[in-house]
Write a structure and sequence with these properties.
The protein is α/β, with parallel strands linked by helices. 32% of the residues lie in helices and 21% in strands. Strands 3-2-4-7-1-8-12-11-9-10 form a ten-stranded mixed β-sheet, sandwiched between helices. It has a two-stranded antiparallel ribbon with strand order 5-6. Helix 1 packs parallel to helix 3.
Amino acid sequence: MTRQIAVVAFAQTDHRRSTEESSEVELLMPVLHEVLRRTGLRTADIGFICSGSSDYLAGRAFSFTLALDGVGAWPPVSESHVEMDGAWALYEAWTKLLTGDADTALVYSYGKCSPGSVRDVLTRQLDPYYVAPLWPDSVALAALQAQALIDAGDTDEAALAAVGARSRTDAAANPHAQRTGPLPHDDHVIRPLRTGDCPPVGDGAAAVILAAGDRARELCERPAWIRGVDHRIEAHALGVRDLTDSPSARLAAEKAGAFERPVDTAELHAPFSSQEIVLRKALRLGDDVRVNPSGGALAANPVMAAGLIRVGEAAARIHRGESDRALAHATSGPCLQQNLVAVLEGDPR
């Protein structure tokens, strides 16, 4: 890469169980205003805009066009959308800036999970012929993955609970987190997963601004330079995959340059505690790496925004000088089917 791109600003909502009093546009507007305020830019100064969301959550086709009211479509803007988590919108914006067609980009994503059953909505990601007609929801499939890990000797229920407890403890320092406090002592949601092993259902939005080269340094005191991004996908059929491993996450990390030098921070999009076990192994993260200091997806998991939030949280730690080299990860689909990895670095101090 001959052009250096950085995350120069990040903003997110306070994630809540329900925002029924607000539309998607009303949920998004404060975030867009905040991320622009942090750079001093106006919408008209942005060279490219890309968003991520899901029509299935909204329950109507082309729902993302309504969110453009929050951006403002006049004067005409260069805009794109992905029916994916906002981390994949960031990937598109990053490639756009690499071409030199723009110097700045606004990336945003949002998800309102409260209006319906997100567990049922996510079944629409499954193979439509053999699996989706059985309606196995996201928690049931994650429980199969967790049980496979236990059967393989990679973890146990106590270790899973420790992941959930650590996430809630770390989330106490995150003012945007939805779930904090002691881990509940309750029955299984679906064995072997308990409430603390599963993500909360909630609404939220996030946005980042990317900038290239010297423009990044003008907009941010310590930009989070994107040294590499890559995303890979597993086979669609769950029966042909080893659910205790994630080859696609490992390959994405390798192609993004994550294994070239150690990272000090990792923001993993692991909606279930068992998935953190898989990702730690696939991404070669040792005990010296700070994993999910924000609390991660177990503390707040707005579908279609949680992956972008991982990138934003990693970048924000670099902005504040709390990290020098960070890994950010996003996933989509059942049991870590699709994985994106980004490596971010700050200038030497």
